[in-house]
Amino acid sequence: MAVDFSMPVLVVDDYSTMVRIIRNLLKQLGFVEIDDANDGQAALARMRERSYGLVISDWNMEPMTGYDLLQHVRADAALAHTPFIMITAESKTENIIAAKRAGVSNYIVKPFNAQTLKDKIDAVFEKPAPAPTA
Q: Which pTM value belongs to this model?
């Protein structure tokens, strides 16, 4: 399945500069419908209002982390199949394992560029979304 550049994408990061960077990278790749939220709770509220084709979320946020957001999304039947890419500055193996267990679609370690983002997005849409494990 090819990437649909018309699908809405939600960028979740509490650091406005990072939101702007990811938004610009997504635009470079051809995406046009890009929304953002500055924490997991705001993201969850937006996801319940609108159907997103992809969520790209930072891990480290307050008060709800990207990992918490991922768990909420995978536990919600209406949102569970939303492709979800986690971004983090930490490449700790235990974090990657925890995110995979929680049903993350892909994982990006900062810093990254447009090509890395494109490759990770392409990989998400080339394979079926993982089913969350209980």
A: 0.92
